[in-house]
Amino acid sequence: MLVRLPSEFDKLSVTQFKEKHGEPRTELITRVDDKPLTDNVPAHAVLPVYLGKQSDEFTLTDVHGLILSDFGEAYSPATERRLGRDCHTPLLKRAPESLFEPDEVLSYPSDIWSLGCAIWDILCMKFFLYEMEPVDEVVAEQIDILGYHTLPESWKKKWERPDEEDNHACEEIPRRPIGDREVLPGLEQLFEKCVQKYRREEQAAGVFEEDETRALMELLHGMFKFKPEERLTIDEVLRSTWMVKWALPQLEESQTSGSSTS
Questions:
Q1: What mean pLDDT comes out for the span 150-168?
Q2: For the chain, which domains are there?
């Protein structure tokens, strides 16, 4: 939880809280195929609570502190080994090596890929891959954006394998989708189409200037490498032009302005 909740919340019992603020709003969960829910899925979802501010009105003074909720999934690759098949990162943010090499050990570069996804999410207000896509489509979109020529040769063989070569050992590895599909543009073109164009039309937060756009694209290209060993390290990310010239100074400025108004 990033948002500072009213202090009174901690002083109320569950019964008092419900008496004052009402019961939580819930929605019934159903499957699109109308089949029964599995045992690990709750019957209802609790809707988010409105805290009295729109998202663009929050400042750093509202932040209570970053709490990482890892649901028991976080670990240190330096002291623990986990294979790609054991990766539970949401598919849209998951590093591709966990899909193409499910029997290989994951390490820190997989987090760099996920961090790149988070940076795009925050700046662009939505991720560039389509939600609810099967794994083959997600990988196809990654290849659209980054270029087929950047895919490792060993992965190309797995990606291009024909149906008759399918077997139990490789059926879980992504395969090129068959049939017509929408092809996504490259990273720069996608940024222009989905981010800059939207900001111009909606006058939302202002467009990214040419120098910042170039630095941001350079950073993301360095984080979105198919080969894990070619990705930037976290130190290189923090020393990147975009971080040093734009992100970190803006963070310091917001912290200073937030403390002066609190």
A1: 80
A2: 1-67 (no CATH), 82-261 (1.10.510.10)
